Amino acid sequence: MTRRFLLSFVLSLLSVVASAEAPPTDAEVALLVEQLGARSFRQREAAQQQLLGCGQNAIALLRKAARESDNLERSRRAKQALAMLAKPRWTTLKRGFPLARKQGKLLLVFSTVGEIDGFS
Questions:
Q1: In Å, how far from its chain's centre is CA 48?
Q2: Element (H or E) spanning 41, and its range?
Q3: Sequential pLDDT tens for the chain (120 residues)
Q4: Which of 49, 54, 48 is nearest to 66 (CA)?
Q5: Residue 75's CB: how many other CB atoms inside 10 A?
Q6: Which of 5, 17, 60, 77 fits 36 for a cystine, CB–CB 3.0-4.6 Å?
Q7: pTM for this model (two decimals)
Q8: CB 107 within 8 Å of CB 100
Q9: Which of 91, 27, 22, 81 is nearest to 55 (CA)?
């Protein structure tokens, strides 16, 4: 009985570990950035949503596309995605403010992307 339980537990644990998504590779992110300028609206929208899911892994290539792309749609969507990634997570801040106030500490909020309008 305990062997079966242990075996089922190990197998379920392995399936959870195996199903955890690996971070996207640079090639995958580059392909998604290219798709921001696709002819199909659905493809552009899907690529932008997937890039938002990539988070920090997509920032460098999005910055490059925003600055250097000759495709206006790709450039616009890259800037838009960077702006979305730069927004602070309100739920995290919402929990942090009362805790900081209670402890008498100053809460500083920094953007992980940097200057959005100048892409410096």
A1: 10
A2: helix 41-54
A3: 555 544 454 444 444 444 446 778 899 999 999 999 999 999 999 999 999 888 888 999 999 999 999 999 999 999 999 988 887 655 566 667 777 777 777 766 655 555 544 444
A4: 48
A5: 17
A6: 77
A7: 0.58
A8: yes
A9: 81
